[in-house]
Amino acid sequence: MSITRLCAVLLFLLFANPARAEQTAPLSLNDLLRAALAHDGRVLAAHAELNVYRAKYDEASWLWFPVIKLQGLIGGPVSERRLLDCDPTTDPLCTGVGVTDASKGGDFDLGNMSIAMGGKIEGIMPIYTFGKISEAKKAAQAGVRASEAGIDRARQEVALEVRRAYYGWLLSTSAVEILEDGENKVKAAEKKLIKMLDELNEDVTDRDLFKLRYYASQVKSMLVRARKGRAITLAALRFLTGINDLGTKRKLVEQELTALEFKEEPRETYLARARRQRPELKMLMAAIDAHLAGVELQKASFYPDFFLGGYFKGSWSPVHDFIENPLLNAGLTSYDAGLAVGFQITFDIPLKLARLEQARAQLSKTQVQSGQAELAVKLEIDKCLEDMREAISNNKIQRKGHRSAKAWMRANWMSYGIGISDTKDLLDSIAAYAVSKIELDKAKHNILVAIDKLHAACGDNLSKAP
User: Fold this and answer.
1) Are 336 and 314 in contact (CB under 8 A)?
2) For residues 26 and 248, is the Cβ–Cβ distance under 8 A?
3) pLDDT by residue (tens digit) across 47-89?
4) Which of these, 14, 154, 227, 366, has the minimum number of CB atoms within 10 Å of its CB?
């Protein structure tokens, strides 16, 4: 083998195979969460909203910057305007200022006309505004904090939906496996029953076969519903993650539903975490700060704005002389500048009072909403705790029921094999085992969902799998 081909094979083994293995590796819950948080429109929209409020904060931060306006002009034609030196002591017609003949009547000879150019720059910089600029910055900063909390809320919503869809997929997949196993057991029992009928066994009749086939149809119907549920949860995961080949080329990690250990903490602990972490409460607190700044901003509108203003203007024309005498009208070759400290105030008092009352009403409304939201969070935490207790208790009950159903089915299966158990009892035990296993998995599923809901109510991070 040549050196070139050997290098090509080594590169393929080093790079092509691992990449291919990585692409076909089953996706875990953490993989789904990462994909969904990078794809979901709610999270992307929340980030865009944050950029909007950051831009508003930048705008408020530069309110002190002077407003500068620059104007420029060039045009013509411009007639001549020039001065001549004269001496009043020798020239009786001299008035102290002499002008050319063209300047006296205006030069309308287009060959002697020219152009002029000039410009003006002026600016105003606020010096003291009685808190208008600082309060505007506070309001904008509160908007940034609210948008950051909005991102956390969007991430929580998406993560909770992905986790519930994944747990639902595990539950439906387990149900499909259980029902398929039950279907196989019913088919095996049917073959055994047909053989016993062919052997003219007096312990079975055609009625047993009819019962068996009826139960088989019921199992198939449940299997169809379970497969439909699995397909729906898989479609939901495709929608949330944006992975279109999920379930076909991209497989999911299949694992048995496991009820996580949960140690209940005091109610006040959950409430403290919720007050500190819950995005909705953070957004309302930021809104209160923004409305407080709005109230102060409206109060400051009753006071004047002190500013520093200045300007510089000048123009030039090749046919105009610069006139130094301040008593004469300046021509198009001139300059001027000025600097001053001033203030500005408007006296639309009724409008300002109305805007102040509106700002106070908005603040009061948001404060009431914040208090109501905190009460709603307390109620939500209480409900989540009750759901958790119910799910844990139900899981214990279903475990006991499943063990009994499993023992019942094993005993009947062994008895049926030697012909000492009737068909109905066997089918009842098979159905009870399947139902108990599905209910046990459902109880585990409910515990996982209840834990996630409690974490969401406390504002805990759900973007990572436990």
Assistant:
1) yes
2) no
3) 999 999 999 999 999 999 999 999 999 998 888 777 766 665 6
4) 14
Out of 287-301, 315-329, 331-345, least confident range: 315-329
From residue 365, alpha-carbon distances to 40, 276, 290, 362, 372 in Å are 32, 22, 13, 5, 11
Sequence-distant (6+) residues with CB within 8 A of 194 are 209
0.85 exceeded by the pTM?
A: no
Domains of the chain: 27-63+130-303+349-458 (1.20.1600.10), 66-128+305-344 (no CATH)
Nearest CA to 147 out of 47, 222, 243 is that of: 47
Contact by Cβ (8 Å): 204, 425: no
pLDDT tens for each residue of 378-426: 999 999 999 999 999 999 999 999 899 888 888 877 776 555 556 677 7
Among candidates 239, 276, 307, which has minimal Cα distance to 374? Answer: 276
